[in-house]
Design goal:
InterPro entries: ITPase-like_fam, Maf-like. 36% of the residues lie in helices and 20% in strands. It is an alpha/beta fold. The protein has a single domain, classed as Maf protein (Alpha-Beta Complex). The termini are far apart.
């Protein structure tokens, strides 16, 4: 007797998808996905979700372990959101970025003074930017997450310049209190790694995962 279930499952693995759900509000990630040529639909947290709670650090947690753990948590939350909302089937893309120096994780500053304090820690030194990405395939399987690791060196910048930068509001909402694609570029002497990864979505790793998930782009 012909095994229709096996044929059905086989056909599922051959499906391709014209878009990916992006579970991020970041305009930079949206810009980078467009650069890649991938179509996307936003899949953002509902008002009743505590998205910030997912980013809480664990005591003694290393930055690379932290960013990958948070990324997986966000991926699972996005998958649950997809199922609860009755959306059509498609893979889901999630990313998380953190900045680390002196074994500390520098998250998003809560105000200008916080931003200046973070930036003062970075000036004249090198720090790491870690971006983890995860894709949940259309069948619900979490693909093996990828980690992009880059090194950034800040120039020696005086406090007045940092204050002027913080006053623009650009550092707020950004890990490490700066965006490489914005005015902070004037402070950066050198990078070693992925520019798109520092922005928040490493395109090489993203493209590889989207191909595995059979997203057309």
């Amino acid at each position: 007797m012909h095994d229709r279930t096996r044929d059905f499952e086989s056909n599922l693995t051959m499906l391709t998808y014209p878009f990916v759900y992006l579970a991020s509000q970041s305009p930079r990630r949206q810009e980078l996905l467009r650069q890649l040529g991938a179509q996307y639909e936003l899949l953002l947290p509902r008002p009743d979700e505590d998205a910030e709670a997912l980013e809480a650090e664990l005591p003694g947690e290393a930055a690379d372990a932290y960013v990958q753990r948070v990324c997986v948590l966000k991926a699972n939350a996005a998958r649950a959101r997809l199922l609860a909302g009755g959306h059509r089937a498609a893979p889901v893309l999630v990313a998380d970025t953190t900045v680390t120096i002196d074994s500390l994780i520098l998250g998003k500053p809560i105000h200008e003074e916080d931003a200046v304090a973070m930036l003062e820690r970075l000036v004249g030194r090198e720090h790491e930017v870690l971006t983890a990405i995860a894709v949940v395939a259309a069948d619900g399987a979490l693909l093996e997450p990828a980690l992009s690791r880059s090194t950034v060196r800040f120039a020696s910048v005086d406090r007045a310049a940092l204050r002027r930068y913080a006053a623009t509001g650009e550092p707020l909402g950004k890990a490490g209190a700066y965006g490489i694609q914005g005015r902070a570029a004037e402070f950066i002497e050198r990078i070693d790694g992925s520019y798109s990864g520092i922005m928040g979505l490493p395109l090489f790793e993203t493209a590889a995962l989207l191909r595995v998930a059979r997203v057309e782009f």
